[in-house]
Amino acid sequence: MSRRLFIGLMGAAAVVALTGPAVAQNYPTKPITMIVPFAAGGPTDALARVIGQKMSEKLGQQIVVDNAAGAGGTIGVAKAARGAPDGYTVLFTHMGTLAVNIALYKSLPYDSQKDLVPVGLAGTNPMVLVTKKGFPAKDFKEFKDYVAANQKKVQYGMAGIGAASHLGGLMLNSMMKVEVLEIPYKGTGPALNDLVAGQFDYMVDQAVNVLAQIQAGNIKPLGVSTKKRLAQLPDVPTIDESGLPGYEVTIWNGLFAPKGTPEAIVTKLNAVLGEVLADEAVRKRLMDLAVDLPTKEEATPAALGAQLKASIDKWVPAVKAAGVQPE
């Protein structure tokens, strides 16, 4: 190898070595778009805005939320996957769009494990089985018996194909071995409004959505989806302990970036996300909404990647076993 070629190669290597840290040191120099693949006002959107606002303060640049809703979140995720891998497009979404949708759609315009880079876990939401106020059951056992005996007239609602409430209700009905009329809505807000109005019988939705209506006495909580009772609803038993062993559905939310985003930028975003989740004011606000916050070990990019794979391995077979036909 000639001396000139050697010097040239060494210079190129030095440039590559310095590019990542240099880019991350100056990043960001303009606003960042955070794509949320759901309508404004939902639980993923609410969590994204709380975290995004605090990340904006720490990064010194505004994070603009883009609610690219539709088709069970697939439109927004596809938009993020096609984004420039420069750190100025990120995705804030929940497990349904990246894992469960694999079983709900015949084909997706993205590969959640290949087209996106994990940045960090942002929180996990427990779910609650809630019924309209006048539903004739005071606990889960009575609910289960009533639904089994009245399958032709009972109705359950959810926020749309691929929504967390779709997954929660789907697994509940499957494990109870009942077939009831499913009413899909365009978002959590309309569905919850109709439940409060008594237009359908029950839904299984994220605690962050239903706590206020439960506390106001507008709907009835009959069970929570976790293995332990929620501190926010200590008198509401788990569905598992109430007569449906093995029922556990929680919805994790994560921050992702398009494939090819520099590792140094991913590392910086992860560090800032960790600072935000360690902020006492943020922690209190999210914990009041029953959001389970990740530990430091659970919040790494690698841990989120492993979480995504585990969710695919768990839920794709489960959804198929429930007899759902992909769209």
Specify the CATH homologous superfamily of the largest domain: Bordetella uptake gene, domain 1
Number of domains: 2
Report the principal-axis shape.
Answer: globular
The helix-and-strand class reads alpha/beta
- Biggest sheet layout: 7 strands, mixed
Report the portion of residues in β strands: 15-25%
Please count the beta strands (DSSP E, at least 2 residues each). Answer: 9
The overall pLDDT average reads: 91
What is the compact description of this entry?
The protein is α/β, with parallel strands linked by helices and 327 residues long.
Structure characterization notes:
It is a single chain. This protein has 11 helices and 9 strands. It is 45% helix and 19% strand. The chain is of the alpha/beta class. The longest helix is centred in the N-terminal third of the chain and has 24 residues. The protein has 2 domains: 166 residues, Bordetella uptake gene, domain 1 (D-Maltodextrin-Binding Protein, domain 2), CATH 3.40.190.150; 113 residues, Periplasmic binding protein-like II (D-Maltodextrin-Binding Protein, domain 2, 3-Layer(aba) Sandwich), CATH 3.40.190.10. The chain is globular and about 65 Å long. The relative contact order is 0.18. The termini are far apart. Strands 1, 2, 3, 4, 7, 8 and 9 form a 7-stranded mixed beta sheet that branches. Helix 1 packs parallel to helix 9, helix 2 crosses helix 9 and helix 4 runs parallel beside helix 11.
